[in-house]
Hints:
One of its GO terms (molecular function) is protein dimerization activity. Residues 48-99 form the BHLH domain. By secondary structure, the protein is mainly α. 61% of the residues lie in helices and 0% in strands. The protein has a domain at 45-117.
Amino acid sequence: xxxxDGSESEGSSPVSSQASETQPRRVSKSSSSKKASRVTKPxxxxxxxxxxxxDAENKRRTAIRERFTELSxxxxxxxxHERSEQVMLGKSTDFLRxxxxxxxxxxEMARKRGIAIDSGEPIREDDFGGPKWKANNMEQYEASxxxxxxxxxxxxxxxxxxxxx
Length: 165
């Protein structure tokens, strides 16, 4: 509310605001005195926690349902199947696979006719999970995973040796 209404909260009256403008601000108190002067909120009861959890879960499910409905409008043949995640994911996968194949076919046709494609590199067989797909740095990942597994086994063996001593 405005100062003219006279319905301001306590502590922000014209007198106190004038006084605060003329006086320098106080240096902040130490953290321990701040904690003591701060009013703590009461802890939530079990039923309140349960209600909050259910409410958050319902919001999450609603958001997922809305996204599946949106997806069903984008994917041909999926309209009306948004309640079944399995059907939606299967139809979406099939649609994306068809789109990739169509793009590859069009790029090949353009290449044969000598038409330049300026949208970056053409899609290769190993892009987007094709039959020759191999994730970038997969070899390094596998090597580090084996090294990690080997060091954990080595540490476990050392601990077993120490316990036997």
